[in-house]
């Protein structure tokens, strides 16, 4: 005689199937780079919320990295719980086996369609570099495979659980075969889940997201492994350059797809450019400078033939991150598709194989792992732009002390104050420091002027008297405009104001 499994056994069986689904998606994520709900959910929701709500979430979680981890863990837990609920519904349902299976199939088909619809705008995400159409197909297929695996696990467990058998003797007690089966299944399921999770978290961005570059060892060119890093991802793409393509589409006469080799053969330029994140607070280190080798985006757009009425270029990464720039900026010869950084191929975390370099605008416009550009005739919005950042992404003039540290104690002996100054794509003409809390200003020496697109390195030699010092720094950009003293927070257009440090001379 067949009988339905008990409520806890049904829940457990569903949870095992849910863990199985998660493992299948995780394995596919590792091998073919398809995206799974722990990543898709965050990517889908982040652009829809306002900056202030996004910031509240960051504060609540204790930081961007913490928020990402919380999101991933709750999504995984959510999948297991959803599996448990579905297992319960299915295993406890009355009626003929045919009717119950049809219902299960219908629910699962519905779930699949729901996933495709809900995640459609970002279904082109692929962490191995598949271009848009194959990436969408791969994600649709991966979720189908996972859902079919869920059903297979659930049906297998059911056929075992509904067979009436003698209890087994275990440690001197009689234990039902169901309990043994479910405990074994749960063990295997959760071990597999743990293994996949471990493999994936080895590549997690928590180890480097938010890396800053500042302090006494700052050089004109930032070494690649110390370049500041910001990413929306919990795990960055590791792209196979032979799968990767650069697609040019939207309002162009001749849409075109480039392979990595085709792109590299176009005539390239080398250009030093400083990048800075819009979330860089006054005096902070979310900025770095490198020498980029790449193809002017302009030459690719000209070959494609922009149609009249184009106002913006939408740039998209394989991680489905996107951002936009005005068509004039896209046609600026200094806007590059870069594939080398300081003479080396782009590091994975900085966008290998190709990223965009947009001088003068905040870091978020510099799309990493870029895979396509679409020209559009409307004011399209990118990932962070949709939250309400901007609308001007022009970098205001910044200057910073790198030496001494805020709060330092220094000897009453000759010393050199040092730092950087950066004015987007306007260059730096002069830097001044104040050693009396802003009452008087003295010209600093420019040790490395950089170019109009980079930061400058400055220093100031001084022999301080004992006592407390409050020092400020300000810069004048290449056009002669003095850095604004107005203090503004990072939201929504980036911070302004003078960097102020206090130190004790003893
Ligand atoms: N594809 C993609 N590009 C991206 C991002 C991202 O999350 N995904 N982050 C942006 C942000 S907010 C910044 S500040 C810069 C950081 O570039 P870096 O990590 O190379 O310094 O990349 C931008 N490009
Ligand atoms: Mo950023």
Question: Could you walk me through the main structural features you see in this protein, from its secondary elements to its overall organization?
Answer:
With 506 residues, the chain is of the alpha+beta class. Helix content is 34%, strand content 23%. The protein is built from 10 helices and 21 strands. The chain has helices at residues 7-32, 37-45, 51-61, 64-92, 97-118, 132-161, 177-202, 260-265, 297-304, 327-330, and strands spanning 168-170, 173-175, 245-250, 256-259, 269-276, 287-296, 312-317, 322-326, 336-341, 344-345, 355-357, 370-376, 398-403, 409-410, 415-422, 428-434, 442-443, 445-448, 456-462, 467-477, 499-505. The protein is elongated. The structure holds ligand MTE and molybdenum atom (MO). The ligand Nc1nc2c(c(=O)[nH]1)N[C@H]1C(S)=C(S)[C@@H](COP(=O)(O)O)O[C@H]1N2 is lined by residues 227-233, 275, 277, 317, 319, 321, 350, 363-364, 366-369.
């Amino acid at each position: 005689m067949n009988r339905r499994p008990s409520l806890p056994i049904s829940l457990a069986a569903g949870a095992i199937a849910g863990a199985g689904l998660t493992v299948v998606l995780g394995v596919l994520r590792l091998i073919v780079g398809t995206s799974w709900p722990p990543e898709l959910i965050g990517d889908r929701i982040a652009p829809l919320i306002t900056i202030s709500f996004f910031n509240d979430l960051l504060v609540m979680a204790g930081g961007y990295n913490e928020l990402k981890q919380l999101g991933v863990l709750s999504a995984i837990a959510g999948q297991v719980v959803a599996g448990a609920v579905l297992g319960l519904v299915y295993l406890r349902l009355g009626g003929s086996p045919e009717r119950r299976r049809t219902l299960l199939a219908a629910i699962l088909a519905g779930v699949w369609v729901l996933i495709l619809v809900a995640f459609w705008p970002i279904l082109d995400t692929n962490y191995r570099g598949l271009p848009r159409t194959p990436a969408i197909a791969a994600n649709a297929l991966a979720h189908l495979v996972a859902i079919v695996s869920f059903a297979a696990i659930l049906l297998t467990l059911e056929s075992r659980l509904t067979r009436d058998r003698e209890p087994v003797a275990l440690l001197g007690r009689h234990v039902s075969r169901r309990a043994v089966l479910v405990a074994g299944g749960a063990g295997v399921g959760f071990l597999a889940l743990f293994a996949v999770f471990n493999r994936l978290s080895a590549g997690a961005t928590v180890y480097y997201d938010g890396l800053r570059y500042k302090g006494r060892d700052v050089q004109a060119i930032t070494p690649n492994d110390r370049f500041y890093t910001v990413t929306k991802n919990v795990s960055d793409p590791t792209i196979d350059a032979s799968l990767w393509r650069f697609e040019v589409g939207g309002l162009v006469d001749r849409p075109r797809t480039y392979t990595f080799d085709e792109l590299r053969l176009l005539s390239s330029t080398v250009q030093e450019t400083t990048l800075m994140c819009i979330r860089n607070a006054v005096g902070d280190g979310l900025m770095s400078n490198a020498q980029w080798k790449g193809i002017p985006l302009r030459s690719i757009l000209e070959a494609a033939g922009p149609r009249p009425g184009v106002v913006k270029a939408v740039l998209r990464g394989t991680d489905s991150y996107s951002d936009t720039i005005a068509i004039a900026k896209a046609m600026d010869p200094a806007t590059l598709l870069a594939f080398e950084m300081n003479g080396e191929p782009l590091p994975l975390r900085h966008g290998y194989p190709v990223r965009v370099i947009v001088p003068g605008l905040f870091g978020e416009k510099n799309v990493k792992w870029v895979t396509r550009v679409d020209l559009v005739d409307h004011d399209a919005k990118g990932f962070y732009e949709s939250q309400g950042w901007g609308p001007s992404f022009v970098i205001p003039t910044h200057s910073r002390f790198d030496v001494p540290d805020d709060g330092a104690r220094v000897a009453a002996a000759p010393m050199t104050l040092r730092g950087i100054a950066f004015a987007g794509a306007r260059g730096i003409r002069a830097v001044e420091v104040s050693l009396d809390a802003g009452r008087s200003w003295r010209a600093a020496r420019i040790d490395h002027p950089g170019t109009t697109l980079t930061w400058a390195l400055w220093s100031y030699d001084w022999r301080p008297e004992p006592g407390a010092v409050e020092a400020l720094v300000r810069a004048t950009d290449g056009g002669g405009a003095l850095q604004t003293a107005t203090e503004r927070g990072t939201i929504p257009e980036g911070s302004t104001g003078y960097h102020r440090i206090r130190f004790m001379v003893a």
